[in-house]
Structure formats: structure tokens, C-alpha cells
Amino acid sequence: MTNYILGINSNLHDAAACLIKDGVLVAAAEQERFDRKKHSLAFPSEAIDFCLQQAGIHLKEVDAIAFPFQSWSAVYKVMGHFIRYFPFTLLLALDRVKKGYLSSFYLNYSMKKKKTLSSLHKDFPFFHLEHHLCHAASAFYLSPFEEAAILSIDAVGEWNSTLAAQGHGNRIQKVFEIGFPHSLGLIYEAVTQFLGFRPNCDESKVMGLSSYGNPERYRKQFEDIIRLKEDGTFAINLKYVDYHLYGHKRMLSKNFIRLFGDPRSNSEPVTEHHQDIAAALQLRTEEAAIHLANELQRRTKLTNLCLAGGVALNCVLNEKVKRQTPFEKLYVQPAANDAGGAIGSALLLYHNINNNPRSFVMDHVYWGPDYDENAMEAALKKFNVPYVKVADIARHTAGKIAENLTVGWFQGRMEIGPRALGNRSIVADPRNPNMKDMINQKVKHREDFRPFAPSVLEEECGNYFDSNSISPFMLQVYNVKPEWQAKIPAITHVDGTARVQTVNRRVNPLYYDLIHNFGALTGINLILNTSFNDNNEPIVCSPEDAVRCYLKTGLDALAMGNFFCQKEE
Q: Which residue, 61, 204, 444, 473, could crosslink 334 as a Cys pair with Cβ 3.0–4.6 Å?
């Protein structure tokens, strides 16, 4: 009998839905791609509808619904904390209610409403599952490993901020946990806010900025803020933070302000001082993650490691953990943030709770919607965009990239996760030393310190970078070989590194052909890749999204299906 499980992340940030069939992923998408609100908090109606349409089923055919949060558990666990710090925690209580404590109850209401709209009369079994176990499941059950150590690190779930576990077959067992307010995710969020960026949104900016700074300037200060303990865990020095009292209303204390000065407003220039704070924060977060990983390896003796949680989107940290611990193989699930909790909850229910065997490995990210040529052509005509239809879109686009055009590349099924990996991408020539600044200023409209990533043919990775390891999800950072840094400056970060995506011909043959054709023209088998979106908006989903983004930004061209559009000079 076919078993369908719908996984939903709702009313937390990064709302998303997924559908698994007998333990195999069928579809997954973030709600933000449909409602066009970045990190959408909305009930993911459109994401759910897409998943059901992709499978060709109705909601009444779903056997169970899984959700990666236990509101009642959260309320119970934090009650003592609220009482201890009352009345200061009134603001924290409001913040946490908004960000999830009532989310399980609202999910039930929303689903009942959806059933009514669909004229359905089935009582769905709801499974509200522990947040960090869902993160752990999203990494381990999608990995190729029969057994592995698992680290889930984010801001906070019901109560815990960190889970160390081990997976064997279809079972996950906890090893140790770290609870609120001791959280690497929250301290990173807090400093992100201090630096003038949006917490729980712009942490990748701080990661990129950190490469410009000197971590030694504030190393001692952050060693005091994030303290590594002899038992292999860590603790946040609470005299520097206020998020345990006021939530996101006031995340850092007066002691932090006295130490580092006033927070930067988002309109102020980024100075060397801000760069050095970012660098010290990044270094200490890496050291804490390495500390945790070493302790987990000591206890489990395993050689495979799975990383999950929002902190696992820090690709610099991931590579440091891989290189500086005894673990030999690493798997990071591409939607490691809370969007991936939708997938993890469905898999945790299917494997760990229902005791079903594993039969699926996630080796690509293309689980979203795709569109036929009729939809693409209709969008082009709607906006009166001139276009031509070409016989070989990969060869044609590669030639345009080699001529220094920036191209929006819209093909196949949309990616799950925050990285565009060749189906909703902006692609360009990595050889042009001005390309990084040009795309940041004219296309993406974002800070000039933000780097761009290379997509490289999998078998060619070791020619350009100091690693032959595959990195299909762009979640690891390699050093660009010294002899190549001046030849591919647009994807070489200020510290000589690059956030690499390796492209496999079997997984994405069209994107592979694009890079291969570019290599045939230039002798370089990699291209610059960044997400197809303007700053502060989600990655494009539909053909209409793609055309709008093409028209309103400084993109030179659009390759959508076999249609090619190019703006006049």
C-alpha cells in the first residue's frame, strides 16, 4: 500500500512543504517562492498544493502530516525560564509566541480550513515532532551513509539549540543536547543585527564580510562570549546578551555595547571595525562547531558526519569542521534551515517512528515546480519581450557568457534550499575582474563585499581548487589554487577561497553542457553562478518571475527553456 506523508514547516520562518511517497521524496518547495515574501512565515498553501499536484494526488490521499515543532513541549520547557527572569521575559514570551510557540495549534486550524475549502471529511493524523530531531533526520536519512554522527545547530527549537546524535540504518539516537539560551545560532543572529543587517536573514552577509577582517583583533573578547567547556560543549556568557530576556527586541546587552561600541545602522558604511567583529565571530563559531564535532566523534567513533540546522548553511564553517576533525566524510542537506524541517519531519515519521527501511539518497536539489514552453512563451509575450528560439540553448548561452553577458538561466525544476544550483541561476564569465562588482551593483543591488560562487564540472574540480571532493550543494569552501586566482577573479573571494558547486552530468545534463560549452570556448570549465533574484527578494519560481527580474535589473540576457532574450545595448 502506497504511503504518502506531507511534511509542513509553517508559521515559523522559512515556511515550506514536502511530500514523500514510501520514503522517497516526490516534491519540496519553500512558500516564499510562491508568495514572493523572503523567508515567508505564511501557512504554505501554495507549496502544499504544488507538492500534491506534482504527485497527482488529492489531500485526502495523504496518510499523515508531520510538523517539525512541538508547541506544548516548548511551553512546558521554557516556563521555568520565564518565571526565573520575570517580568523581563514578557517581551521574550511575545517574541516566542510570534515565532512558533503557537505554531502547532495554528497549523491544525489552517489544515482544517484547507480541508473545508476542499470539501474533505478525513481526519488527518498530525504528528508534531521535535525540532532538532527533524533537522537531524533531514540530513541523515537523505545522506548516503548507513551510519553517521549528526550535528544539528541553529538558533533554538522548542528549547534546545544544539543536538548531537548518531544514526544507524533507520534509527536516530541522541548523544547530547545544549539548551537555550546557549546558542551559536542566536549569538550569530545577534551580532548580525549589531552589524546593521537583518537577523535570521543576513547571516551569510556576515560570513562573507568576515573574510575581510582580522579575527585576532577581537579574538579574546569572543572567546569570553562563546566559552568552550571541557565536556565538549559550549556556553554563551550571558552578561553580553539580552535575547534570553527580550528576544529579538534587544539581543545584545549594554556590556556588549561597551565592549564594541554602538551598533551600526544599515545606512552607515561598513568599516574595518565591523569587518574585524565579523571575522572574530566567524572564527569563534567555527572553533565551537569543531569542538562539538570532536566531542561527538570521540563518543561515537564514527567517521561520517551529517550537519543540519541553520548554522550548517555556513559553508566556511562546514569546510573547517571537515578538515579539522577526525571525520572523513561530510553530508550537509541543502535546505539545512527550517525549510528542510518539513522534509525532516516527514522522514522522521516514516523511518524512526513507523520503522520503515531507507531506500533514498538526496543527490540533487531539483524538487520544485517546472514549466513547459507554452508557459514560458506566454510570459514573454505578456511582457512584450523580444525573443528567439534556439536549437541548442546551452551552446548559445555559453557563447554569450564568453562575450561577457550576464544571463538569467531558467531551466527545469526549481531548487529547494537557499542556493540556486543551475536551474534558477544568474550565470556569467568568471574571468572578468569587473564582473563581481558589476553584478553586485547593476543586477543584484547589494553590498560590494558579497562574493559569487563557481559552478565547476565535477571531474575538473581538482584542477582549480585544493579539493577533489564533490560539493553538489555549494555548502563547502575550497581554496582556489594560486595559479588560478588571477585567471578567475570573479569567483575568487578576498581570502583566496570559493564556495564551490560541483556539477555532475547525470544529475543536471543541461547545466553541465552549459559549463562544458563555455570550457570549449575559453579553456575554463567553470562559470560564475549566483541566484536568479534581485536583492531582498526570493529566487524566481515561475516564468513570469524570471521575466520581471530580467526586465527590472541590469541583466543582459535571459535563457528560459529554449528561448533566448537579449537587451539592446
A: 473
**Grid cell in block for residue 161:** 539549540
SS3 string, 368-412, reads: CCCCCHHHHHHHHHHCCCCCEECCCHHHHHHHHHHCCCCEEEECC
Segment 343-379, tens digit of pLDDT: 999 999 999 999 999 999 999 999 999 999 999 999 9
- What pLDDT score was predicted for residue 117? 44
Q: Residue 21 in contact with residue 48, Cβ under 8 Å?
A: no
On whether the CB atoms of residues 311 and 38 are closer than 8 A, the answer is no
Positions in the chain whose pLDDT score sits under 50:
101, 116-121
CA torsion sign for 129, 130, 133, 138 is positive
Q: Nearest 5°: CA angle at 17, between 16 and 22?
A: 150
Cell matching residue 509: 545534463
Contacts of 317 (CB under 8 A, 6+ apart): 282, 285, 286, 289, 311
Cβ atoms within 10 Å, residue 554: 15
Tens of pLDDT along 485-498?
999 999 999 999 99
Report the distance separating Cα 443 and Cα 456, nearest Å: 22
Instruction: Please count the helices (runs of H) and the strands (runs of E) in the chain.
Output: 21, 21
- Note the pTM of the prediction, 2 decimals: 0.94
Per-residue HEC secondary structure of 484-530 comes to: HHCCCHHHCCCCCEEEEEEECCCCCHHHHHHHHHHHHHHCCCEEEEE
DSSP label at residue 310: G
Amino acid letter at 164? A
Burial track 108-143 (b if 16+ CB lie within 10 A, e otherwise) = eebbeebbeeeeeeeebeebbbbbbbbbbbbbbbbb
Task: Please give the pLDDT value at position 123.
Answer: 63
CA–CA separation, 520 and 476 (whole Å): 27
